[in-house]
Design brief:
Helix content is 19%, strand content 35%. The chain is α+β, with helices and mostly antiparallel strands and 252 residues long. It has a seven-stranded mixed beta sheet with strand order 2-1-6-5-4-3-7. A four-stranded antiparallel beta sheet has the order 8-9-10-11, with no helix packed on it. The longest helix has 18 residues, at 41-58.
Length: 252
Amino acid sequence: MRIGVAVLLAGAVAACGGGPRGPSNEVITRVLTGAPGEAQPSRIVATEIAFARAAREDGQWTAFKEFAAPGGLIHGRNGPVDALAFASALDDPDEAVQWGTRAVWMSCDGAMAVSQGRFRDPQGIVGTYVTIWERGADGQYRYTYDVGTRDDPQPPPREAPREGEIVVTALDSVRADIADCARRGETIPGPPPLTIGEGYNEVAKLSRDGTLRWRWIHYDDGRRRVAADYLSMGSWKTALDEFMPATPSSGE
């Protein structure tokens, strides 16, 4: 995720995940208290906020290790790599990449979620990340996969406000979708079949309740792709389908 930035700049790609520490934001805490159902996209947003804060306060790669699930992956230049091993091999930078969630898709049972958002590195480079989250036995969300890419071209820099101008910023909104739950006696339709082709490696995973599927693809030419589908209104719909160019060999 935001890691998408950091890792890209390190010569690979991104990583992120839900960790043991909870959000300190009192507003988020109040929202989560008494929230109905197992599937609560707000918990993913809260975990992302906690992760970003840990990266800023404890160190970027230290936080990446803290919030990684066992076997979690970072999708780098040559394909997905073990997130814990990758983060353990790097020193924390003086300033961490920061990010914010823009959309969350969650399985009906809340055990799996996909988040998509935007990141900014200390040099002002911005881009998009996608992160897969899974809920552990302890109820905490940790990332199992993360990928990110910077915008190309980069957006033009914002103009500094002129003297006397008043700048008003708007609150960011987050899109949240929860997959359909099966009714009693109802069979959940399977997701659409995946195309099998040559010239790339691909791994797909279906949530345990069968309502959310995601997959990563790594092409022989270095391009990357992550896609997700979820059950909505009785049929499968595309949540996202992100193509990402090959990471330059010189790093970013």
